[in-house]
Amino acid sequence: AGGGSGPVGSAAEDGAPPAPERVLFPPTFSVSEIKNKQRRHFMFLRWKQQQRKEKLAAKKKRRKEREALGDEAPPKAIPKTIENQRVYDETTVDPNDEEVAFDEATDEFAPYFNRQTVPKILITTSDRPRGRTVRFCEQLSTVIPNSHVYYRRGLALKRIIPQCIARDFTDLIVINEDRKIPNGLVLSHLPDGPTAHFRMSSVRLRKEIKRKGKEPTEHVPEVILNNFTTRLGHSVGRMFASLFPHDPQFIGRQVATFHNQRDYIFFRFHRYIFKSEKKVGIQELGPRFTLKLRSLQKGTFDSKFGEYEWIHKRREMDTSRRKFHL
């Protein structure tokens, strides 16, 4: 009792109020050890609040230090993200690689990129599609020029493909559904393949998009492909590019974007809005959806005897969150 002659004792003698006690969690604190559910939830919220306060205080401290140093302040640290910590893929394409250039000049898409063929797309569905899938196919046909929608009833794809080749179709798109919701997309390049199988999610029709623009016009849109960096990604990107005619009509101000991020391909369809000579905005037209590549197959669709170039195997390939394939 007689040893309390520190700062606390002097503050009490001067009549100053004692400093409020700061709540600190011990270093080994674990919320999961609390048995009571309500108490555990309450302590978790307090712990998160304390984390946010400490993070904000450190941020303010760093900003003040930078302001005090002025021009002598060190450069800002680059934040760590999953993208910039990506595991290097040995199949990443070098733009100056002669082998890649030769392969692309002789692959199945070479006639399109050499302007020898004009895209003509057939969009079809699984057997007896429901209303949402039907509306999605109709809206997709307004995005892809020179595309035609056909609703098949019991007709096998192996019988459709020869008819498509005979009618000079260059690509076949099949929209599959589950429980009345579109959940898959098969893209087959005709007449020699390849065929890509995608899982489809987050489908939004035009009426479900907030602040959407007016109906798209018949102008040929501009196509943007982002982050398709590996050999596999180049093949997938070339498949998407071959769906659209070569010369976009910029007067229509429409753009179709395939953005790859962490092997998820996000599709958006926008229109440019020029507010002035220096300011430009974008207005989404829809539809929108997300694709995840499941397999890439040589040749046209053949589920039994087809030869696969690449198959997504979750247990073998998804061992690291920083490993991407496209």
Automatic annotation (TrEMBL):
Output the Pfam families linked to this UniProt entry. Answer: Brix (PF04427)
Which part of the chain is the Brix domain?
119-302
Q: Which Gene3D superfamilies match?
A: Probable brix-domain ribosomal biogenesis protein
Location comes to:
Nucleus, Nucleolus
GO molecular-function annotation terms?
rRNA primary transcript binding
Q: What keywords sit in the KW lines? A: Ribosome biogenesis, rRNA processing
Look up the record and report any one GO term of the cellular component aspect: nucleolus
- SUPFAM superfamilies cross-referenced by the UniProt entry: Class II aaRS ABD-related (SSF52954)
Among PROSITE patterns, the record links this protein to: BRIX
Provide the residue span(s) of the region labelled Disordered.
Answer: 1-24, 49-83
| UniProt xrefs under InterPro entries | Brix, IMP4/RPF1
Gene Ontology BP, a term: maturation of LSU-rRNA
Q: What is its main location?
A: nucleus
- Per its database record, what is this protein's job? May be required for ribosome biogenesis.
Query: Could you identify this protein by its name?
Result: Ribosome production factor 1
Q: Which organism is it from?
A: Eudyptes sclateri
Recorded name of the encoding gene: Rpf1
